[in-house]
Amino acid sequence: MKFGGTSLADMERIRHSARHIRREVDEGNQVAVVVSAMAGTTNQLVKWCQEASPLHDAREYDAVVSTGEQVSAGLMAIVLQDMGITARSFCGWQIPIRTSDIHGAARIQDIRADDLDERLGDNQVCVVTGFQGISSQGRITTLGRGGSDTSAVALAAAVKADRCDIYTDVDGVYTADPRIAPRAQRLERISFEEMLEMASLGAKVLQTRSVELAMAQGVRLAVRSSFADPDAFQDVRDGTNFGVPGTLVCDEDEIVEKQIVSGVTLVKSEAKITIRSVKDRPGVAAAIFGALADEQIVVDMIVQNISDDGRQTDITFTVPDSEYDRAMAAVSNNDSFEYETITGAKGSAKISVIGVGMRSHAGVASSMFKALSEKGINIQLITTSEIKTSVLIEEEYAELAVRALHTYYGLDREEE
Amino acid sequence: MKFGGTSLADMERIRHSARHIRREVDEGNQVAVVVSAMAGTTNQLVKWCQEASPLHDAREYDAVVSTGEQVSAGLMAIVLQDMGITARSFCGWQIPIRTSDIHGAARIQDIRADDLDERLGDNQVCVVTGFQGISSQGRITTLGRGGSDTSAVALAAAVKADRCDIYTDVDGVYTADPRIAPRAQRLERISFEEMLEMASLGAKVLQTRSVELAMAQGVRLAVRSSFADPDAFQDVRDGTNFGVPGTLVCDEDEIVEKQIVSGVTLVKSEAKITIRSVKDRPGVAAAIFGALADEQIVVDMIVQNISDDGRQTDITFTVPDSEYDRAMAAVSNNDSFEYETITGAKGSAKISVIGVGMRSHAGVASSMFKALSEKGINIQLITTSEIKTSVLIEEEYAELAVRALHTYYGLDREEE
């Protein structure tokens, strides 16, 4: 069970989250808990490091910011004990959770689970600090922001957990953002692959890296709300329901009724830049996107069309609106490739439909284009992957497009 | 060099304290630093633990409250690096500083200094978390409030430091409280024994335990102000002056001109309780003071007079005013000893004169009584130790008595 910062924001919320833990213990489960820092704590610690020096030693930064989880782990252990549950806290270095030496962005290499296994077998609750570990030099490392999800998945794999429950401030993964598509539904199950596309496309429920790790290690993930009443659901339990409503992220094989499309996502404020009649030679794409990477600009969609004569091509890519000016400058002031014109504009939106069912169902892309055309929405760019089709459209049509596709693919919740 | 919470209260104060470190480094000294938590931090952490549960696990309490020093050590290392000084932070467990398993009140058992020695020899500044260590179980322990002084002394002994400088918000140890005796002077030197009496009698500059340890390990201590200008004093250095004003706490042998009396201390709000005609038999004192100890009441002065017939005695003791009612109840409701009457009153003050010179100079006590009698001050109780004489007087005469004794023993600073 992993609890994020908003689920541990103050003593009342810590106590509420502890009741979720108690419910699992009462049902006879062995429970390891991973905690983030109390909401706001990490920001304060990061701010202090920046005040101390804008160019601070990442090893010292890690020593400072890792304290937030140590506090919440200790407090959670105390609250659990107060409820009569045997519990103790562990720092990353005490287990130890061994990581690489890349401070501030370390990767978990190995978790020694002997002690945890013994305690779990003895029905003790082990509360572990998320987001951190120890390097081969014996120094505290952190995994980068949001790394607690990754800690939880790695720990679940190490103790061979049946499931890794990520408790957060939403009660699951939805077919679309309910603020845009009011008839969006919570998904009972979603495959790792779909979740990865969702996570990187704007559904900010799980950290992408934690989903990758869960998929690689075969750890079933559940996204659940810590804000729900911990006791109200304790009797409702079958294969798909876990006590409180939530979404299970699992292997495709575990999903019996596969939807063709599982969700519709939206990323707004995209800027598109088109370089026309680029002289086509090996390495030209590397030259363009290398120039952008040098400026630390993250490029989203990339589309390259073949031109008529095969000697020159048009390349279009998108960046966040906020990076538009810097991106234009990076590709314009560049003599490592030849081109005719560069044009661009801010104010587009990327709409994606995601679903493992696309693999076996032809025509998903074409039906997407049809649905949009019925609403009079013009498509600027198209990219596809195995389980996803994305289009770039004018931003003012974004919400309309999400609702239209949500309805078109039969995702709307039935009216009550 | 040890810095307390007020010397690290915010980034500006951390930077100011770091300039004191830089001065020592610039003068070619090898420097290890011990830090407390930023002022206020530990109180917040303790409060959270109490909110989590009034009866919290001391091991979890230690995990939580020890984070304050980890934050300040990391920030100090960053600030020092920013000044161009090679520095790194160490948690107690990283060195390791091994302690007993008594969580919340652990005692340092052993400090492994190999790595520190190597780094110090390499002119690196090692910034170590005060107040904490690691138990034989591999869990974080804390030494109790104010334990950072003790950490500093233990570390100084482990690295065989020439001196352990305790930087605080006062610039040394004074012959009396300057708010009461305006002509009180800062002592250039004071013996460990005198400092111990001072520390336990109300001069709240150094933790008693740290002075005991310094005496046992032969570590010379200096009490100095972190608020002083770090650069103003760098050229003033001889045997007694350390760059900034301060007081050296050292072996008696190192003090050439021994004062008969080094200081006058005051503890107000003392209540006295007298048990008259206690039937004198072996174990009667144990019965009385055992009853008080059972109630966790700390007794200060104890005086027992021999009575005329040798079969009954009068016993008087003092407790803080705030404990008076509980103390009266504890000795009154007790049938483990026989007595005639119990009387008592709040509102006394204890005045003590302290000085190693008393050992070789007769008449210090009698001259004290004479000085007080000259001011018409009545003495209620007298106790003496080898280097200290204490009297209990009526509280309203307290300040007058301190000033009278301060003048009488020639401690007054000359008028400027």
Description:
Two copies of one chain form a homodimer. Chain A is built from twelve helices and 18 strands. Chain A is of the alpha/beta class. The first copy, chain A, has two domains: 2-252, 3-Layer(aba) Sandwich (Carbamate kinase); 263-408, VC0802-like (2-Layer Sandwich), CATH 3.30.2130. Chain A has an eight-stranded mixed β-sheet with strand order 3-6-2-1-9-11-12-10, sandwiched between helices. Chain A has a six-stranded antiparallel β-sheet with strand order 14-15-13-16-18-17. In chain A, strand 14 and strand 15 form a beta hairpin. The first copy, chain A, is globular, with a radius of gyration of 24 Å. The mean pLDDT of chain A is 91. The A-B interface holds A 11, 14, 45, 48-49, 51-53, 55-57, 59-61, 63-64, 66-67, 70-71, 73-75, 77-79, 81-82, 88-89, 91, 93-94, 138-140 and B 11, 14, 45, 48-49, 51-53, 55-57, 59-61, 63-64, 66-67, 70-71, 73-75, 77-79, 81-82, 88-89, 91, 93-94, 138-140.
Query: What is the count of β-strands of chain A?
Result: 18
* CATH architecture type of the largest domain in chain A: 3-Layer(aba) Sandwich
Oligomer category:
homodimer
Mean pLDDT figure of chain A = 91
Structural class of chain A: alpha/beta
Q: Which pair of protein chains has the largest interface, and what are the residue counts?
A: A-B, 36 and 36 residues
Domain tally of chain A: 2
Order of helices and strands of chain A: EHEHHHEEEHEEEHEEHHEEEHEEHEHEEH
Strand order of the largest sheet of chain A: 3-6-2-1-9-11-12-10
Ends distance of chain A: 33 Å
Strand content of chain A: 25-35%
Largest sheet of chain A: 8 strands, mixed
* Rg value of chain A: 24 Å
| Helix count from the secondary structure assignment of chain A | 12
The percentage helix of chain A is: 25-40%
Output the CATH class name of the largest domain in chain A.
Alpha Beta
- Using the alpha-carbon principal axes, give the shape of chain A: globular
The CATH superfamily of the largest domain in chain A turns out to be Acetylglutamate kinase-like
Low-confidence stretches of chain A: none
- If you consult CATH, what is the topology of the largest domain in chain A? Carbamate kinase
